[in-house]
Design a protein that fits this description.
Protein name: Cell wall synthesis protein Wag31
Shape: elongated
Order of helices and strands: HHH
Number of strands: 0
Keywords: Cell cycle, Cell division, Coiled coil, Cytoplasm
Number of helices: 3
Radius of gyration: 48 Å
Family: Belongs to the DivIVA family.
Strand content: under 5%
Subcellular location: Cytoplasm
Largest sheet: none
């Protein structure tokens, strides 16, 4: 199993029942896998360092086992520095391509984020306008209702006042006709 750093970070162990912690056997097995992969990486790193040192010193290094040699002839002594320069040039070109790809991806992510932010702001502004419009309609309705209630109150008070004044006049008229003192004379 090829082990990557992400595998180590995302590894989930099963919880053991009836006690705290993880299953020790599972943890040991996983650590054994890490050690094997780490040792492979260290060995490969050492081999690559040795090959690089051989190329830099001008000696021809043996061809890698994974890549077949295109020609059966051994490279001449003068071609080792040229091959080393070619490898460095290839590495620089790959580096530049990866950097350019990263910049393009960064620019795309920024553009997408700006577009999404503009969409969210636009949606929020639209919602805000709709809510303000709705609240304005409710306010207009409530102000109309308040005006109706004030008119009703004014009319009701006027009717009540005229009713009470009419009853007072009737009371004074009845009292005067019977010879009693009018209510207004009593100071009420």
């Amino acid at each position: 199993m090829a082990l990557s750093p992400d595998d180590v970070v995302t590894k989930q162990f099963q919880h053991v029942r009836f006690k705290e912690g993880f299953d020790p056997d599972e943890v040991d097995d996983f650590l054994d896998e890490i050690v094997v992969e780490w040792r492979k990486a260290l060995t490969e790193n050492e081999e690559l360092k040795a090959k690089l040192a051989a190329y830099e010193s001008g000696a021809a290094a043996p061809a890698p086992a994974a890549a077949p040699a295109p020609a059966a002839e051994a490279p001449a002594a003068g071609t080792a520095p040229a091959a080393s320069a070619g490898i460095i040039e290839l590495a620089q070109r790959l580096h530049d391509e990866h950097v350019a790809e990263g910049i393009a991806q960064r620019d795309q992510l920024i553009a997408d984020a700006k577009s999404q932010a503009a969409s969210i702001v636009s949606e929020a502004e639209t919602r805000g306008r709709e809510e303000l419009s709705k609240l304005e309609r409710e306010r207009t309705t409530l102000e109309g209702r308040i005006s109706e209630l004030r008119n009703f109150e004014r009319d009701y008070r006027a009717q009540l006042r005229s009713y009470i004044e009419g009853k007072l006049r009737d009371l004074e008229t009845t009292a005067t006709a019977s010879g009693a003192q009018p209510v207004s004379a009593l100071g009420l």
